[in-house]
DNA sequence: GTACTTGATGTGGTTGGACCACATGCCTTA
DNA sequence: TAAGGCATGTGGTCCAACCACATCAAGTAC
């Protein structure tokens, strides 16, 4: 039996060594979603590193949405492998938006791109559309602004999921998450929230109807107008508008 | 003067408190790209937490491409704010591909979507196209497979940058990074690398020429065919092909 | 005066050990 | 049999020390 102890890792920082070990376990299939990592102390001893380094690696994986750490005992405890790419991408985008190196306009425009594609590609019989329809019905009821926006997020995510591309879905969700704080502030700029909400509901139904009729081209156009219209009404201007090119 | 010490953060883990503090500094403008964080020991004392927690927060930010930690003394040392969203998105995507929760096919298809859009939107006089052209000339010389692929990556990134959307550029780069190990293996499947490389070069020149002639529609088509063709030749099949819908 | 050596200083990198809060499950006890 | 409490194992946090590294300033040799 060979030892897991690895010394002489000159170029790599210790926590990166742990990171690589875990990633290899994932790629090799020894570790899969739902599985549990060895306890921090155990893993530290196995790899011949300190628990601190193991913890730093786990922190990174947690931020990446790859594991979830839970204290205590039992099935809910320990560090278990999950898969939440949206969380990772969302946090990263939000931070870089904070540093002002990712313009909010570009985030919105990318969202238009991805959602338009998803709407065009979604199949009329996709089961996710049933969820979208149910969410739409729910949005008719009297809701607070926050509740309405929460349902709105879920509706758009359901549409994205209907396209059947996990990467696009994840990116969509992360874009939405990255600017959700920003979007929340925008609602304060709206002159008449009730009127806006009513319009949004109508547009939602149009979009869903277009997809159901397998008119992907129209659905894509409606989605693009829907998203751009909202941010424009709330006061977000494109940075170097060139509508003819979009 | 109020104290930075924050006790009683019951619901939040300590490193998340540090994370929030730094993110607030970024959003508020007290910290910007190029700026340096306080030393770990200093920051720990200021926030009233242990150095361990500060380090865990910095690890996360490092993984997110927001800071770079350097030992020693002088301008290169310390923890300095950078902005490399591509690194963060790339690592996250790679890990989730490793867990098999993001199909490689979806990554490729998303790449087609983003690059087609970028090619269609790029302006004929964008300065990034000059770089792309220079890279193309360089690719004519005799290169090893790895060198050729490295230049290929830079060419595609230059095209993406020409569209002027930082989010799309970052996502593009991250998608490429997430599957670059995979793509490297694919080259081994190619029957005749020299022939393939020659074809790729010709396609590159066609794409660039289309953009230069402001024929965005044709550029987008060429890019899509270029990417799909490469992966198809290397043996990657679409998971549920429905070409009429793409 | 110039060039080299050497030490002080400050940075992140790593370690071991200690203690806490928490959740579970077994085991004792009434 | 049912209720309580302790043993166990998990991650969460902190501390004190040491190392490797890079710079800069003081001192020294020429």
From TrEMBL, chains A, B:
Q: Does the keyword Lipoprotein apply?
A: no
Pfam families according to UniProt: FCD, GntR
Annotated GO molecular function terms are:
DNA binding; DNA-binding transcription factor activity
Identify the residues that the record assigns to the HTH gntR-type domain, covering every copy: 12-84
Query: What keywords are assigned to this protein?
Result: DNA-binding, Transcription, Transcription regulation
Which PROSITE patterns has this protein been placed in? HTH_GNTR
Q: What is this protein called?
A: Putative GntR family transcriptional regulator
Q: What's the source species for this entry?
A: Arthrobacter globiformis (strain ATCC 8010 / DSM 20124 / JCM 1332 / NBRC 12137 / NCIMB 8907 / NRRL B-2979 / 168)
